[in-house]
Amino acid sequence: MSLGRTDTSTIGRWWWTVDRWTIAAIFALIAIGVLLTMAASPAVADRIGTDSFHFIRRQFVFLVPAVLVMLGVSLLNPKQVRRLGVLGYCASVLLLVAVLLFAPEIKGSTRWLSLAGITIQPSEFAKPTFAIIAAWMFAEGRLNPGFPGRAIACFLYAMVAGLLLKQPDVGQTLVITAIFAVQFFLAGLPMLLVVVGGVLAVLGGVGAYFIFGHVQTRVDRFLDPSGDGAYQVTTALNAFKSGGLLGRGPGEGRIKLVLPDAHTDFILAVGGEEFGVALCLFVLLLFAFIVLRGFARLMKDENLFVVLASAGLLVQFGLQAIINMASTLRLMPTKGMTLPFISYGGSSMLALALGMGMVLALTRKRYGDEELEQ
């Protein structure tokens, strides 16, 4: 099928307006994720006494719908993205409430909900949908001085942050807070409030240390890497040392045999041992490319909602990658957060696909009558 520039079909217009370089970079991350999941997950499956290909099959079950979701959402116009974000946020909040009421406690927290035999983590979907609805409120408040957009955005943030802390999930709350802060700043937050917000963020971090036991434990382990609780990070660092520049070779890794969560939180360590630092640097460059290219395209857009929503989604995507990689390299306390499009995890994969589909939709070039759809 040939898609010429004169093709006025939906697919044709999409092909010539969407950022194909970003799509290529995302598919490169997905391919690396498939490769590393195949490398890391059989050892994990064997340790827990299940079929060696259990996690691989489940990852493919979610991977195909995720790709379809990303490409399907990228066909939308900004108004449709906004509607999808509002509906998604409302559904996410309801599911977060359901988690607190009905979900079982696992490792001291309630984060997963089983629906029709499928386990989902609602907090993953709350992040991209919150970025959309908060951007809408900030944009409306800026464009219509009589509209209480800031107040509504603050209320929406407080509601979702409160539900996340109730689980508790401090890491996801941190990401939501970063999205909110960046959007508030871009929407015209006064410098005095920026300083106040910085002080509150520091106080919030100190408070989390004393209020949540798991946060205190992880920070203490980070500050004392020689303690018994630093086994995972120490093992991950040994994987990087074992791999060197080019790695031991596909399937030759040994750390994955003993490293807990090798297919999720510490999958980069498996890649570092088998494929070397070269692969890790390539992954880092892909994440940087996607985020920086997204912001570069935003600089050309005059629609405030598009700018705020895309900025929030890109911050979420980049920050999640930074947290995962920094935790693996012992640059910050460990946090159970997936590496976007690489780590095993159905909810994470689908939610990230939704978010990046929104980014692709919002950053498309628009001409003529498409401007009226914003």
From TrEMBL:
It is found in: Membrane. One of its GO terms (biological process) is regulation of cell shape. Pfam families: FTSW_RODA_SPOVE. GO terms for molecular function: lipid-linked peptidoglycan transporter activity; peptidoglycan glycosyltransferase activity. The chain crosses the membrane at residues 21-40, 60-77, 84-103, 147-165, 185-212, 275-292, 304-329, 341-362. Its EC number is 2.4.99.28. It is a multi-pass membrane protein. PROSITE patterns: FTSW_RODA_SPOVE. GO terms for cellular component: cell division site; plasma membrane. InterPro entries: Cell_cycle_FtsW-rel_CS, FtsW/RodA. Keywords: Cell cycle, Cell division, Cell shape, Glycosyltransferase, Membrane, Peptidoglycan synthesis, Transferase, Transmembrane, Transmembrane helix. It catalyses: [GlcNAc-(1->4)-Mur2Ac(oyl-L-Ala-gamma-D-Glu-L-Lys-D-Ala-D-Ala)](n)-di-trans,octa-cis-undecaprenyl diphosphate + beta-D-GlcNAc-(1->4)-Mur2Ac(oyl-L-Ala-gamma-D-Glu-L-Lys-D-Ala-D-Ala)-di-trans,octa-cis-undecaprenyl diphosphate = [GlcNAc-(1->4)-Mur2Ac(oyl-L-Ala-gamma-D-Glu-L-Lys-D-Ala-D-Ala)](n+1)-di-trans,octa-cis-undecaprenyl diphosphate + di-trans,octa-cis-undecaprenyl diphosphate + H(+). Belongs to the SEDS family. FtsW subfamily. This is Probable peptidoglycan glycosyltransferase FtsW.
